[in-house]
Write a structure and sequence with these properties.
alpha/beta; Rossmann fold; four-stranded antiparallel beta sheet; 10 strands; binds adenosine-5'-triphosphate; binds magnesium ion; transport; ATP-binding
Length: 262
Amino acid sequence: MNGIVAEGIEVSYGRGRRKVRALNHVSVAVQRGNSLGIVGESGSGKSTLGRVIAGLLEPDSGTVDLDGTPLASMPRTGPGSLSRVRQMIFQDPNSSLNQRMPAGAMIREALVVNGIECDPKEEMVRLLDLVGLPATAADSYPFELSGGQRQRIAIARALAAQPRFLICDEITSALDVSVQSAILRLLRDIRDQNELTLAFITHNLDIVRALCDEVIVLQDGHIVEAGPTSDVFDHPQDLYTRSLLDAVPRFPWRPFSVAAAD
Ligand SMILES: Nc1ncnc2c1ncn2[C@@H]1O[C@H](COP(=O)(O)OP(=O)(O)OP(=O)(O)O)[C@@H](O)[C@H]1O
Ligand SMILES: [Mg+2]
């Protein structure tokens, strides 16, 4: 199948009495061009699963295939290599961006490292424009940018590799609601234009509803519910899913919507 297929993923951290089973026989499948929401309370295993799908953490057992190719058999370099095929974006752009490099240089570096055939300067400006930043942002260091602008730089740098898979771990949780929706609209558009397959980890169930075709609900490293987002959210079968949905604070005067400014 084209897309992300993970089967029988098991991950434990630590040993002996300190052993934590972070993922217990977790399987997910998401079609190419679709988005998978990964939700669950803190410590349920979301980031662990994201890192396994991204090939940043080797599971104790289980397999991950991206567009039908096992992660384990992907070459280290070249067009089919893991770093070209997938990119991961994290909650805190401060820790992933190089503080001593201007934004434009970071994006150009990603183009060169990934062997993208292009005029690096032109492509860098195109990527900045794509994420809604002016060409002048190229000269700014991360500390000169706002949190939302830094996250856009992180997205532009991830897109520089022309990935087919994007794994996003809480990428908007540090941002205010209007910046969140702008970044989510951007991701949705990029996904639709480039047939990107997205895995989206978040605590925000409204975001999942707005952005994700499928959702899995994790509790203590187990999947307790999975399926099309509307089915799972409108007719939750599991008590835990219901409690997560009931816990969502509602602010009627400012409903969250990715489509708000369309
Ligand atoms: N490097 C690690 N070493 C030991 N235990 C870890 C490590 N990373 C995660 N864990 C444990 O594995 C479990 C799952 O952690 P994980 O980070 O995947 O949860 P999460 O759902 O992403 O939580 P959050 O919403 O707080 O980010 C937790 O019990 C956590 O304490
Ligand atoms: Mg996490």
